[in-house]
Specification:
Elements (H helix, E strand, L loop, with lengths): L13 E5 L2 H4 L7 E5 L24 E7 L6 H18 L3 E7 L13 H11 L6 E3 L2 H4 L6 H12 L4 E6 H5 L7 H7 L1 E5 L7 H11 L4 H9 L11 H9 L11 H9 L8
Parallel strand pairs: 3-4, 3-6, 4-5, 6-7
Antiparallel strand pairs: 1-2
Helix pairs in contact: 3-11, 5-7, 8-9
Length: 272
Amino acid sequence: MSWTWLDDGAAFAGRVYPGPRRLVDAPTPATCRIVLSRQPSPMPGVPPPTPFPAPAGDAQAILLFGGSFDPPHAAHTALAAAARDALAKRLDAAVALLVVPAARSPHKADPPAADHHRVAMLDLAIAGIPRAAIWTDELDRPPPSYFADTAARASVLAGDRPVYFLIGTDQAAAFHRWHEPRAILAAATPIVIPREPITTADQLIAELDATGAWTDASLATWRNTWCDLPVMPHAATDARELLRAGEPVPEGILVPAVRDYIVTYRLYALRP
């Protein structure tokens, strides 16, 4: 596997090396990582990575699933579990699904639920998913919070084990505009799942090609990261708007235990 950019040069000099030997023969492009010639220096005052939760202990690979989870949707966690299972089958290896609640600014126009509420709801949402747990590293370190740092810190904890991250097609199409995308790909490999309006691998490659950021080789790599799952439905705003309007939330959007938690703590209620 190789990631190359049309503006390659001194800013990005990498080489590809295989992951753990038992994964090399697996029919997946995601058995390699990119090593940057220059690693970022640690930031003063930033704590070490939050230890991985127990399910990652004996896993042979790590899949990160980041998001605001405000609130967590039943379909999103179910699709993440399905993607993890597909990756585990592809690698013929045990894969831990680590759900990563994103740090959020309290100064946004639409303030999120408090961190402890989001973590509690996530805990309820993934309760029935084997080998899944919450990794709170983004909440445990000071701002600003970038996924490039999250991926790098996960890679440190993973050691020789490969790290992957789940990404929807809408975000994948704009990946070149993320903060330090090269650093992310140095630490972890994307697993892409369909999300409106980009619902096929061909559509995704066309969108990526149109950005002008990727070489033909990298476009082929992106195609090989595709995970063929149902289109991810709904957005967090859908549930919040219904809850704030006092409208019933359709079955299947929220895990019943999450819905009960929201009602108990009067989250997302309309403010006078």
